[in-house]
Amino acid sequence: MKITRGETRPREVVLDIELEPDDVEPYLDRAYRHLVTRVRVPGFRPGKAPRAIVESLLGREHLLHEALETLVNDSVDKAVQREQIEPYLQPDVDITEMDPVSIKAVIALEPQIKLGDYRSLRFQPEPAEVGEEQLQQVMDRLREEHAVWEPVDRPVQFDDLITIDVEGIIEGKPFVNNTGVQYIPSMENHVPLPGFSVGLEGAKKGESQTFTVKVPDDYSDASIAGKECRFRVEVHDVKRKILPDLDDEFAKGVGQGYEDLQSLKDFVLEDITRGVEQQALDELYERALQPLVESSTIEYPEMMLDREVDHMWQDQVRTLQIRRMDVDTYLQQLGKSEEEVRQELRPDATQRLDRMLVIRQLSQEEDITVETDEVDQNILEMRAASSQGDTSEELERFYSSESLRSSVDSSIRTRKTLERLGQIVQGEAVYPAIGPEELENQQEESGGTEVAEQS
Question: Most buried one in 174, 227, 341, 442, CB count within 10 A?
Answer without folding.
Answer: 341
